[in-house]
Here is the input.
Amino acid sequence: KSRAIWIVLAAGFALRLAWFAFVKNEPVSDFANYHELATGLHHGLGYTLNALEAPDPYFRQTDTPPFVTAYRAPGTAFWGFALYSLSGPTPAAFQIMNIFLSLGTGLLLADAVDPRFKKGLGPDILILWTLYPSSIAAVNLVGSGPLFSFLLALTAWLATHDRIPLAGLAAAASVLTRVM
Here is the structure.
């Protein structure tokens, strides 16, 4: 089982890395907003939108940047700020980390349902998540999806491993990454 799990993870990593390398995805719309918010934090401008491609409908056409906003849940932007502090403000930082978040999500879900892969369901869940096209394609996004999915899977994993207070913290963090 252990070898099969490593093969699935390696295949998942290769698929995600290939998607990242060959399918270019420039941030637009919500993804551009998350990038702008993280970049603003990185440059010390606060939680602001500064140079949107198209103004958000919540701003008046007469408003001028920077736009202070509370429109987006802050968790994804602060995650981006942490990544940008390490790499500089480049969407590739989000995208590369999404590869690892996506694979981690699969492992957490599989182990939450089948701890230590003893019942036989764990590898199936891992294969389904790892090969699910949307979980592969999401790695190219500067968005909340991969982080939210990882935190939700972490919540389930912590809860099924009797770490309820930590599960509560992971659930709270997940809510901060995505508007519900």
In short: Strands lie at 48-49, 67-68. The chain has a mean pLDDT of 84. The radius of gyration is 18 Å.
